[in-house]
Amino acid sequence: MATQHSRSAARIMMAPAVILLLGWMLVPLLMTLWFSFKKYLPLRGGDLGWVGFDNYVRFISSSSFWPSVQATLIIVGGVLAITIIFGVLLAILLNQPMWGQGVVRILVIAPFFVMPTVSALVWKNMFMDPVNGLFAHLWKFFGAEPISWLSEASLQSIILIVSWQWLPFATLILLTAIQSLDSEQLEAAEMDGASPLSRFGHITLPHLSRAITVVLLIQTIFLLSIFAEIFVTTQGAFGTKTLTYLIYQRVLESQNVGLGSAGGVYAIILANIVAIFLMRIVGKNLDA
Amino acid sequence: MGQIKLESVTKSFGPVEVIPPLDLTIEDGEFTVFVGPSGCGKSTLLRLIAGLEDITSGKISIDGQDATHVPPAKRGLAMVFQSYALYPHMSVRKNIAFPMKMAGVPVDEQNRRIESAAAALNLTDYLDRRPGQLSGGQRQRVAIGRAIVREPGAFLFDEPLSNLDAALRVGMRLEISELHKRLKTTMIYVTHDQVEAMTMADKIVVLQAGVIEQVGSPLELYRAPRNVFVAGFIGSPKMNLLTGPEAAKHNAHTIGTRPEHIAISQTEGTWSGTIGVSEHLGSDTFFHVKCDAFEDPLTVRAGGEVALKYGDKVFLTPDLTQLHRFDAQGLRIA
Ligand SMILES: Nc1ncnc2c1ncn2[C@@H]1O[C@H](COP(=O)(O)OP(=O)(O)OP(=O)(O)O)[C@@H](O)[C@H]1O
Ligand SMILES: [Mg+2]
Q1: B1: pLDDT confidence band, cut at 50, 70 and 90?
Q2: With the C-alpha atoms ordered A246, A252, A258, A264, is the resulting torsion angle positive or negative?
Q3: Rounded to two decimals, what is the model's pTM?
Q4: Distance in Å, CA B213 to ligand 2 centroid
Q5: Which residues contact A216 (CB under 8 A, 6 or more apart)?
Q6: Domain ranges of chain B
Q7: How far is the CA of B39 from the centre of ligand 2 (A)?
C-alpha cells in the first residue's frame, strides 16, 4: 500500500468493517452512559428522569463496591499467576519428546473446550461438594474433616476452577513459543557452562517473555469479566462478588438499570487502569 | 592444553550407525579440518567431541584425561555454531560475558577480556547492540568472541562461514587463520568446502559416510590421495578420473590427472578432442574438452590469455610424473 491511490482505495474498502465495529462498540457504550445518568427501574415505574451523578455516588458508596473490586483483582491476579507458572512448566514438559505426545497434548488442551458453566458445575458437584465430592472422599480417606470448599475457601475455589479452564490456553501459546526456541542456543549455553536452571532463566524465559505478555494481556481482558463460574457456584456469596457480578445484581436482582450502568462505567475505568498498569510493566516485551 | 584423542568411537542414532569405529588423534595447537560431503557425519563427530551427543561406544580423551562421560561445560572446549546461536535478548557485551559469568569470573577480569576480544575482532563499536542489529559477519565475530574469552583448550567450529557471502567468507577465513596463529590453540573446523580445508588446515581429515578416508596435511592429500574418493574431493577444479583402455595402458583401473597437470596444444599430444565450455577466470582458463578416448569431458587448465574457443580441435598431454593410478578397489597404486 504504497501509492496515494492504493491507500485511499484501502480506506474505502476498510470503511464498512470499521463503521460496523465502531457501531458495535459505540452503541452499547453510549447507552450505558445514557442510562447511568437516569433513574431507571423497569419494574417500579420505568424511566424516572435524569438524576445527574446520583447513580455514580450511590454505586461507589455502597458497602459492596470496594470488596468487589478487591475480589476481582484477587481472582484475576491469582488466575494469572497460576496459569502462567504452570503454563510454562507444562509447556516445557510437553515439549520433551515422550511416548503418546499427541494424545497428551490434546488431553491438556481439552478443558478449554468445556463451557464455563459446565466446568463450574462439574467442579462444584463432583469435586468440591462437601458430602459427595471427590475431594471430600479424599479428605475422609486420610481421616480429615471434609472442607466445604465453596463457603470456607470460596475465592481459592473460584480461582482454582477458572485456572483449570485457562491453563490450556496459556500452555498452548507458551508451547508454540517454546517450540520456536533454537536448540543451538540451549546447546551453546550448555557449553558455556550454564546449569539447567540458569539455562531456563537466561535463555528459555527471556525467549518466552513475549508469549507470556500475550497470555497476560488476553487473559486479563477475559478474566475481568468472568461471571458464569460465580453464578453457578457461590452466587456472589462468601466474598466472591466481583465487580461484574455486583453490576449483574444491581441490574437484574434489584432491577436498577441506572445504578448498574454506573457500575458498568466503573468497570470500564477499572479495566483501563489494569490495562495501563500492565502495558507499563510488560508492554515493552511486545516491541520487536 | 588441547590434545584430543578418539579411540574406536562409534555413534548410532537408533538402528542407524552414523559413525563406525573411528580412531583419530588431534595434536595440541593443530588446526584440523573435517571435510566431506553433506551428511557424512562431520557435525556429529564434532558434537561427540563437544559432548553435546553421547558416544555409543569407545573413548574420548582430552589432554590424556578420559573425557567420555564429562559434561560439555567441563571439557574446556568452546564451540562456534553454524547459526551462531547468539542469545538474542542480550547485548553483544552480555553475550560475550555469558560464559565468564557462568564460570564466576570476577567482573573486572570479565571486562578486561571483553575489551581485548572486542579489539581483536573489531567489535568495540558494537558492544551495546543486540545480535539482531548486526550483520552476518559481525554476528560471526561475536560468536567467536564468546568462544575466545573462555580461553578454551580447543575451539570447535561447525561450518562457521557457510552463511556468509563469498567475499566475507574469504575475509573471515583469513581472520580465523590469523587467530589460530596468534592463540596457538587447537582448532577443529568442520566444512564441506575443500577450498577452506586446503587454505586453513594444518591437518585435513576427509570423511565419507562416517569413515575417515585419509588424514594428512593439505599438500599430502593433494600430492598423494590415498583413494579415488579423496582424489576427487581435494583440489579445485576436480581431478579428472579416467577408466578404460587408456587407464589399462598404465596398469591401473583408474588414472587421475589434475587439470593443472595437462598440457593443451593445437598441433600434437596424447589424446585428441574438441573444446566444449570454457571458463575464463582472468588469471586462468578452464577448458572442458571432449576427448575421443573417454566418455566424460576432461577439465584442463590453461593460461588466462589462451586463444582457443568452442569447437576447436586440440590435443592433450598429461604430465606422467603427476599421474595418479588406482586399482579396481579405488586404492592408490604406489
Ligand atoms: N539426531 C539425529 N537422529 C538421527 N539421525 C541423525 C541425527 N543427526 C544426524 N543424523 C544423521 O547422521 C548423518 C550425519 O549427519 P551430520 O549432521 O553429522 O552430517 P554433516 O556431515 O554435518 O552434513 P552437513 O555438511 O550437511 O552439515 C546424517 O545421515 C543424518 O541424517
Ligand atoms: Mg553439519
Answers
A1: low
A2: positive
A3: 0.81
A4: 18
A5: A80, A84, A278, A282
A6: 4-230, 239-326
A7: 7
Nearest partner of A193 among B96, B98, B1, judged by Cα: B98
Does residue A277 have a pLDDT over 70? yes
Closest chain B C-alpha to A196 CA, distance in angstroms: 12
* Residue B192 near ligand 1, beta carbon < 6 Å: yes
- List the one residue out of B231, B282, B230 whose CA is nearest residue B259: B231
Instruction: Identify the residue among A192, A198, A200, A202 best suited for mutation to test binding to B, counting B beta carbons within 10 A and taking the highest.
Output: A192
**Do A182 and B83 lie within an 8 Å CB cutoff?**
yes
Q: Do B85 and A198 touch (CB under 8 A)?
A: no
- Residue range B37-96, pLDDT digits in tens: 999 999 999 999 999 999 999 999 999 889 999 999 889 899 999 888 999 999 999 999
Written as one string, the DSSP assignment of A261-277 is HHHHHHHHHHHHHHHHH
Instruction: Write down the architecture of domain A36-286 according to CATH.
Output: Orthogonal Bundle (1.10)
ipTM of the modeled complex: 0.83
What are the pLDDT digits (tens) for A191-206? 998 899 999 999 999 9
- Among A65, A31, A54, CA closest to A261: A31
Asked if the peptide bond before residue B72 counts as cis, ω within 30 degrees of 0, the response is: no
CA of B96 to the centre of ligand 2 (A): 24
Cβ(B18) to ligand 1 under 6 A?
yes
CATH superfamily assigned to domain B239-326 = Nucleic acid-binding proteins (2.40.50.140)
Partner B contacted by A202 (CB < 8 A)? yes
Residue A1 is predicted with a pLDDT of: 53
Q: Bigger pLDDT: B204 or B244?
A: B204
B282, B326, B324: which is closest to B304 by C-alpha? B282
Return mean pLDDT, chain A. Answer: 88
Fold of B4-230: Rossmann fold (3.40.50)
Q: What pLDDT was estimated at residue A7?
A: 85
Q: Enumerate the domain spans of chain A.
A: 36-286
Residue B281 grid cell: 577466470
Atom of ligand 1 nearest to the CA of B46: 18
The reply to whether A206 touches chain B by the CB within 8 Å rule is yes
